């Protein structure tokens, strides 16, 4: 059961394992959504569980006055799990029954409408939270005294989260105008570029950014 994984008195590694369980729950939920309409009604509770867990690990991670990067892994994985699940609901298409949006009364169930509204708000909030985390990490990357061990302290699990948040900012930039999110996008790209010196996966994610940038998407796909 999902409700058994919250524990506010655990080590960073134990919480990392619990965050990995949330990723598993999110993946299984997305597998079930296209064929099992009842799975939609279970998603709000799973999202609540993710929010509760994020609150716990964020509180634990902010408790130490000295820089402690041991909580970044669980913080990032929990948010990545939320992105995986919410992505299914952020699109206005209906999920139940056949794929595609149907222009008729009741095309989307009440559960689907509620989750879509929640997904739109929460997806943007997760992106902002990720940007705030990146802003805390970037200054240390820019110092001349930076040692290679600094990058080793930052969990590579943050890379998937940053990519998801970056894709979200590109999405809203295309919808609302690039100017409003330009500095968020710049910071995210800078972070991935810097992390690429330690984790090659960061460069892979940075290479995929072109797909989400509406200014060069056509060129990227050719």
Automatic annotation (TrEMBL):
Protein name per the record: Uncharacterized protein
Q: Identify the species of origin.
A: Exophiala bonariae
**Organismal lineage:** Eukaryota, Fungi, Dikarya, Ascomycota, Pezizomycotina
């Amino acid at each position: 059961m999902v409700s058994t994984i919250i524990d506010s008195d655990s080590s960073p590694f134990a919480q990392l394992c619990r965050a990995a369980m949330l990723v598993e729950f999110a993946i299984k939920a997305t597998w079930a959504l296209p064929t099992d309409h009842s799975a939609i009604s279970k998603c709000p509770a799973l999202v609540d569980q993710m929010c509760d867990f994020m609150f716990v690990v964020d509180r634990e991670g902010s408790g130490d006055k000295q820089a402690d990067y041991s909580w970044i892994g669980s913080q990032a994985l929990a948010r990545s799990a939320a992105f995986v699940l919410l992505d299914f609901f952020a699109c206005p298409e209906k999920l139940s029954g056949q794929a595609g949006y149907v222009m008729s009364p009741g095309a989307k169930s009440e559960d689907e409408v509620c989750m879509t509204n929640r997904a739109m708000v929460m997806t943007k909030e997760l992106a902002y939270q990720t940007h705030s985390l990146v802003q805390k990490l970037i200054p240390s990357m820019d110092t001349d005294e930076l040692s290679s061990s600094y990058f080793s302290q930052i969990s590579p699990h943050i890379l998937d989260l940053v990519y998801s948040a970056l894709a979200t900012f590109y999405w809203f930039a295309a919808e609302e105008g690039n100017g409003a999110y330009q500095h968020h996008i710049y910071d995210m790209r800078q972070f991935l570029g810097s992390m690429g010196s330690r984790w090659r996966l960061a460069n892979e994610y940075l290479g995929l950014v072109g797909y989400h940038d509406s200014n060069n998407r056509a060129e990227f796909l050719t």
